[in-house]
Amino acid sequence: MKRFAELLDRLLLTPSRNAKLKLMADHFREVPDPDRGLALAAITGNLSFASVKPALLRALVAERMDEVLFAYSYDYVGDLAETISLVWPSDEATPSNDADITLSFAVERLDNASRSDAPTVLAGLLDRLTPESRFAIIKLVTGGLRVGVSARLAKQALANYGDVDVHDIEEIWHGLEPPYEELFAWLDGKAPKPERAALALFRSVMLSTPVQDGDLAKLTPSDYAAEWKWDGIRVQAVCEGGRHRIYSRTGDEISGAFPDLLEAMNYSGALDGELLVGHPPDHTGSFSDLQQRLNRKSVSAKTMREFPAFMRCYDLLLEGDEDIRPLAFAERRRRLERFVATLDPARFDLSPLVPFSQWEELDRLRMAPPHPIIEGVMLKRLDSSYVAGRPKGPWFKWKRDPHIIDAVLMYAQRGHGKRSSFYSDYTFGVWTGSETEPELVPVGKAYFGFTDEELRQIDKFVRDNTIERFGPVRSVRAQPDHGLVLEVAFEGLNRSTRHKSGVAMRFPRISRLRWDKPPAEADRLETLTAMLDG
Amino acid sequence: MAMQPQLLLHPRPEGLYCPPGDFFIDPVRPVDRALITHGHSDHARAGHRHVLATRQTLDIMALRYGEDFAEATQVAEYGERLAVNGVDVSFHPAGHVLGSAQIAVEHGGMRIVASGDYKRAADPTCADFEPVRCDVFITEATFGLPVFRHPKASDEVSRLLKSVSQFPERAHLVGAYALGKAQRVIRLIRDAGHHDPIYIHGALARLCDYYKREGIDLGALEPATVEGGAKSGFAGAIVVGPPSAFADRWARRFPDPVTSFASGWMRIRQRVKQRGVELPLIVSDHCDWDELTETIVETGAGEVWVTHGREEAVVRWCEINGIRARPLHLVGYEDEAEE
């Protein structure tokens, strides 16, 4: 249990992706089955118990300590699980013994507990654990485990550990169950790769590389098909042997969030496409509309009516039970057109090809796309088969140029890890109010886009121009005649009720430092709001 | 009938004052006669005319403030009974840092122990705390909440060494208070079998040298300066410095550092996150909750005065356990500091 608790704490506090991968891979190496598999299940959100409510935890602790002392403690710590893990009185008669209580022992006890004896079982475990392990258990049973690790990152750690391709793990993942012993046996080289036993599994997606200077000069336009690059969410919709599943591009199942689309999946095959909202083909909703459907576990009937989900199809991977990924794009596209024609037109349509003969012509089209939710064009080599990952050559993305504004640096926050001694996260604003007495209003935050040398320069500016400090944040001088202008590039703009400015940028980054520009000449908020309406 | 305790010791703006003996304990302003519990700068200040303290505390004050930090000094041996203007005083080990003492003050049949800062956990760099029976016990309450439960310091150092072996390409920066904590952490690292040179920030050098002269083996210490200019020189190294240095430009000389901090505050995750600490080490030179409450019982005191920290929780605990208690409002001590 101690090892598991330690892993959780380190993952929670470690900012670096590579360090997280290392911590997980080491854990898989050092901890035996079934505990390592249960740890994996906990991290990927596949371990659940009949949940214990906070009220029950409070009742348990109230039986054990003075309520005033508990109130002081909770007030100080702020987190219920953490407070209880710390104040829980150790039982003198049964000293803490984390070595005996393995994660699997704890999971088994909790799994077998009935609703009525769950409190006793939980208290019995807490009595015998150290505070760190108590915290892990309480977070598990209350379903509040958050360690800043995505399922995708955990799969990458497995791939690193077993020295296999992460796509191989993604493709079998949904057929596996905790504690994943056959998966680990394969990664340890002691057993063959687990079969794709379950149906309607995920197929690793094919990704593109950006068009870079000089790329196109080497390519022949007639070798490629072009289509719009839609800025929704890339999904895979699989129907196999009566099972229906919708996956995100990283292989996480998201069927539950899109019951309207799921219901219309009455075919046999696997489609690759973009999830959007609206009424195809004529009305495609904006990104703000799409946001109404994102990051939700469940969705109300009203939201589904107002923002119906549909899939704009790019590719066909499985037709019936035939895996057609090895076929050329041109052939898959022909089959896709035929396939989509048989589906519910309110839920499925075809991503149209964009005819062109010269790169210059396509360049003009990419700069002025017919819909705001298009972020550029895709180029797909007509003779390319569908392969997992991001090979360079067969697929390119050629994005519309980003939006650019000049903003003024307002606040800087210290970074983490390598950047912990640098002010590296910047909040910037634009002018609003009257021309004579303008005020800055924050419009975004960015922490990349600059070089290491530029980082040093901005850091020096921040330290030399600090006017106030709040913990790790400094506010810096930002006046019409004194301040630092940042050229900020971003992909799009949404309306936002959360921000004072009323707008929220998507994917902002610092594109240039404008030491030369007086802050008074930075952009005004009206420039941004005009982009919203446009 | 014994003397009333508040006539023997009571707070004044300068610090805790003893009217019959005409002296202050750990005064925060310059006074004529000061008794000092230990060398941390919020307790041991410069500018008093006469200072009575243990030899090590006097040495540490001289290191920090110069040899002329007071007009006159007097050494108190642990356990020795001294008279100050007719009041009996004696110094007893507090287990906090090298030279730290509790001060027992006795007069008219009343004995009060002012414990200064203290801890009960074993510390190879200073003498162990000795409980002293008394009528009134003055306790600190830096970690006076039931949430503070310090784990074994050796386990914390094991986690540090494990991380060093997991991330040999990174430097581990351990923040530790310059007096006491830094030397204890270094000694614990040695006890755990790590014998590579440990790099120290310049602010630690004099005190580490002093500890070594006092016979505490800290192993090979080297200045954390860039020689040859290569960042990779610190890969796999442990660097100890004052916590404030790690947020500073100073820290840029280290490759992809893991920031660590040795402090009792590291028990609370929110504090850890606020400071941007990646590897918290819960190592404290103060008592945790269990040690505080056990010590109160052990002194046999019928009354407890609680100072700097979470007074309200300790007072509450005393009430529940039938011990008279009240907060003693002393100003000027850094209960929220970095220990």
Describe this structure in words.
The complex is a heterodimer of chains A (534) and B (339). Chain A is of the alpha+beta class and 534 residues long. Chain A is built from 19 helices and 20 strands. In chain A, strands 3, 4, 5, 6, 7, 8 and 9 form a 7-stranded mixed β-sheet that branches. In chain A, strands 12, 13, 14, 15, 16, 17 and 20 form a 7-stranded antiparallel β-sheet that branches. In chain A, strands 1-11-10-2 form a 4-stranded mixed β-sheet, with helices on one face. In chain A, a hairpin with a 6-residue loop joins β13 and β14. In chain A, α1 packs across α9, α5 crosses α6 and α10 crosses α11. The termini of chain A are far apart. The model of chain A has no long low-confidence stretch (mean pLDDT 90). Chain B is 22% helix and 24% strand. Chain B has 339 residues and is α/β, with parallel strands linked by helices. Chain B has a 7-stranded mixed β-sheet, with helices on one face. A 6-stranded mixed β-sheet of chain B has the order 1-2-3-4-5-6. The two termini of chain B are 40 Å apart. At the A-B interface, α1, α2, α5 and α6 of A face α3, α6 and α8 of B.
Keywords:
heterodimer, A: 7-stranded antiparallel β-sheet, 20 strands, B: 339 residues, alpha/beta, 8 helices, 19 strands, globular, disordered C terminus
Oligomeric state of the chains present here: heterodimer
**Weakly predicted, low-confidence segments of chain A:** none
Mean pLDDT of chain A: 90
Q: Which parts of chain B are unreliable, with pLDDT below 50 for 5 consecutive residues or more?
A: 335-339
Strand arrangement within the widest β-sheet of chain B reads: 7-8-9-10-11-18-19
The shape of chain B, in one word, is globular
Ends distance of chain A: 56 Å
Secondary-structure element string of chain B: HEEEEEHEEEEEEHEHEHEEEHEHEHE
Q: Structural class of chain B, please?
A: alpha/beta
Q: From the helix content, strand content and strand pairing of chain A, which structural class follows?
A: alpha+beta
Instruction: State Rg of chain B.
Output: 21 Å
Largest sheet of chain A: 7 strands, mixed
Please estimate the helix content of chain A: 25-40%
Helix segment tally of chain A:
19
Mean pLDDT across every amino acid position of chain B: 92
Total beta strands of chain A? 20
Sheet bearing the most strands of chain B, described? 7 strands, mixed
